[in-house]
Design a protein that fits this description.
The chain is an alpha/beta fold. Helices cover 45% and strands 13% of the residues.
Amino acid sequence: MSNSVLQDVLSDTQRSYLQNYVNSIVGFSLPLASLTDPMGLFNSLSRKEEACNKHKDQWGNWEGSFCQAYRDGRLAFPYRDSQIFTDAARYKELHPELPVVQKYPNGHGFALCITHDTDNINCYPSVRSLYKAVTRYLSCGLGKTEAFRLILLKALKDALLGRERHLATRDINRFIELEESLGFRSTFYLFTPVLPKPHHYDSWYCMTDEVQFRKRRMQMKELARIIHDEGWDIGLHGSYHSAIQAGCLKQEKESLQGELGFEIQSSRQHWLHFDVRQTPLLHQDAGFVSDSTLGFNRHIGFRSSVAHPHKLWSTKEGDSLSVWQIPLNIMDGTLFYDNALELDEDMAIAQCVDLMERVAVVGGVLTINWHPDHLNKDLFFRVYAQVLSEAKKMNAWGCSAAQLASHWEAYTSSLCR
């Protein structure tokens, strides 16, 4: 596509946005006129198909089966990045003097961004959390009676079975020890105890709830401070309404920072609730460095058809924002739940490794999400351990969202010099 045609179909702001992304992929300044489909790339990054389509699933989300890439059989491929590399190779044949820039630290070929949505911290709620859950549910209305029954069932099991044994099965040190043994780090996204506009989907634990960690009982906020000091990232798991309600996300971030005593930079929306017309500006207003919500609850793959961090685009402002989007590709429950893929262990590992190999080819980032809720499910943990082991063998940089965003900011800035 010629420069004159590009100027007709893309604004200066859009071209600058694309140029920054393309440069970060290939490590040098690749003219946009060299791209096969720059308009398609912009539409993918800005999520035009979501902005133009109001359809949502039963949870108010955009799902994989709604994507054009799904209909084309390409949802599991970062095909936009692959095309950029093909275009770049053709251009580089004409310009062999162009340097090769190392994307990741210490010679790693791609990144594995490891995350944990901490929806619940114990198998069964404390009395305080149970009271909070019931009162919140009543205040949100009685439209979801199955959720209310679940809360009462958990309370009954808590009383009959005892909490001590179940506290032990949820020790997140199981994640920490495995990641540490491989030289990896991860992000734990936590709920704040104070929600400006609660929803019955939201979690109900408190930072003062007791958890088991390294054979000690302690409050959740003490655990968070310990692992933060050891190099793990603590992010905010924004409530359901905070994705669309102005001011909520900012209040929740400030509340969690007040509880823990350090800055929160990373974010992911609970239930992956994200509206491309509203949520990006709310993340910027809250002051986040990165968000990692753009994924699916019932599919694995590439929502934007790319495998690299990129700045969020505001359809309302018609401009890029300061927040890095780290696309989410694989979630544990998606692999096994009966309303999702329903895979067995071997199938789950194979599909995860397939995606990892495709990301490695383009030198991208594979982002995974394993919930502490599932630490007492051996199947979930075995697959998690195997995925991390394969990543280590393939020379992946196992990092947290905060590490990745910090590195990507420095890396992309260096390309501009």
